Amino acid sequence: MARYIGPKSRIARRFGEPIFGADKVLAKRNFPPGQHGNDRRRKQSEYGSQLAEKQKAKYTYGVLERQFRNLFDKAAKSDGITGEVLLQLLECRLDNVVFRLGIAPTRAAARQLVSHRHITVDGQVVNIASFSVKAGQVIGVREKSKSLEVVETALAGFNHSKYPWLEWDQNSKSGKFLHRPERADIPENIKEQLIVELYSKQ
Fold this sequence. Notes:
Keywords: Ribonucleoprotein, Ribosomal protein, RNA-binding, rRNA-binding. GO terms for molecular function: rRNA binding; structural constituent of ribosome. The protein is of the alpha+beta class. The protein has 2 domains: 8-82 and 189-201, Ribosomal Protein S4 Delta 41, Chain A, domain 1 (Orthogonal Bundle); 90-183, RNA-binding S4 domain (Structural Genomics Hypothetical 15.5 Kd Protein In mrcA-pckA Intergenic Region, Chain A, Roll), CATH 3.10.290.10. 42% of the residues lie in helices and 8% in strands. Strands 2-1-3-5-4 form a 5-stranded antiparallel β-sheet. A hairpin with a 2-residue loop joins β1 (119-121) and β2 (124-125).
């Protein structure tokens, strides 16, 4: 499974946001990397800002270009506002749902739990991170994996009422995907309209 494995702090500094989670480096050096990183006078072009927004979304959700383009094409053919539908499709990815449920501390950790067969959907093991979760499906931790330290640590003190489209059952360590989230409920700082404008030029 292809995924980004490069320097995460450098990417977070480029966007000025902790898109991979809490980052001490970003707190100390809150300016872009590189020789001209501290020069804030440089004005970004319209295309540059659109491209940056797409890159931010890809890095945030851990999706590579081909997958992202396929999701965009699917969103463009769906009913509703294309940008919002795109974010909803990204939120429906199994690795993202595992992260949102608090089973893993980051999306990368969630992706690893999925690929290592620790996660179930409706009681069946699913090891495909891009699996699209449907309304009503139950995502849980495999019985023999419930005592994993990474799972217990992530779940300790996690606020399971943060996301209104998910319902958590502490006893079974599982969560139900109630419905696709509304755009207003998705906390990611992504200007999806810029992504739509970028792809409309291609």
